């Protein structure tokens, strides 16, 4: 899969500007795993430790996610300078499969030993570790929506990978790559910042930011139009279950003087709500009203509003829209 994709660059560069905050609630599984050694001699030793400490399949899958997110870092240098695609020749299908397996095994070993990878390494290692504790796991490749520039994009591209793991007859969505941290453009380096929200993510949130190459999830077709034209949501949106009710589209067609109505669930007047104008200055939302378990408010589209509107709640970026001027 191509690694040098502009979409992920936008994620990294926008993570600071749009105030991504990755610190998450740590559950009991995470607390136990946080005390594990940073290094294990083999993947089998790590799997044995997890099987010893946890009984349920759910906790085992979470423990693998947590250990990887705590210890495996995104390899930004490899992202910028991807190695050449490794080709090989074969004479039979069996030989082809053996060579593919060897390449995958090498990727797993390299990720585990070096403790750094891009998404392909994260997903391969997660699949391998879950298999060692007896769980079925798949690698899914597809598109990622991580920048305001992705709103209204015309086509999808294969620029990311994630996992699905089968737990108690239910497929659980997992993205370990996005759970381990973020890129700090002001410091020019990756920052370790564990996030729990990409383990067992609600599909509605997950597919607002991921679109599989197959275009389907568990046999159900997903809407490419909804993915491409939908608003951009952020980590805190998922963490606090801020459901964006209005506008439904990420593309807002307005003319100067129009008022844009927004409605977000699980927000109240006790929260500070604002947006940034085109001069990057915060503008506090006025005249908001509580409605159906959320908050409704309006923003006047005037000369101070830029190409995008990003709504913030208590300093955290929650949702972005693209303005299409009539």
Mean pLDDT over all positions: 88
Could you please say which CATH topology of the largest domain applies here? C8orf32 fold
Oligomeric composition of the shown chains: single chain
Strand count, sense and barrel status of the largest sheet are: 6 strands, mixed
Under the CATH scheme, which class of the largest domain? Answer: Alpha Beta
Number of domains: 2
Measure the end-to-end span: 39 Å
- Describe the global form: globular
Helix percentage range:
25-40%
Low-confidence stretches: 1-24
Task: Describe the SSE topology.
Blueprint: H1 6-17, H2 28-33, H3 43-53, H4 57-71, E1 73-74, H5 76-80, H6 93-114, E2 116-117, H7 119-132, E3 137-144, E4 160-167, E5 170-174, E6 181-184, E7 189-192, H8 203-209, E8 210-212, E9 216-217, E10 220-221, H9 224-229, E11 232-233, H10 235-239, E12 244-246, E13 251-254, E14 259-265, E15 273-276, E16 282-284, E17 289-291, E18 294-300, E19 308-313, E20 316-325
Helix pairs in contact: 3-7, 4-7, 6-7
Protein name: Transglutaminase superfamily protein
Domain Transglutaminase-like: 111-178
InterPro entries: CAP/Cytokinesis_protein, Papain-like_cys_pep_sf, Transglutaminase-like
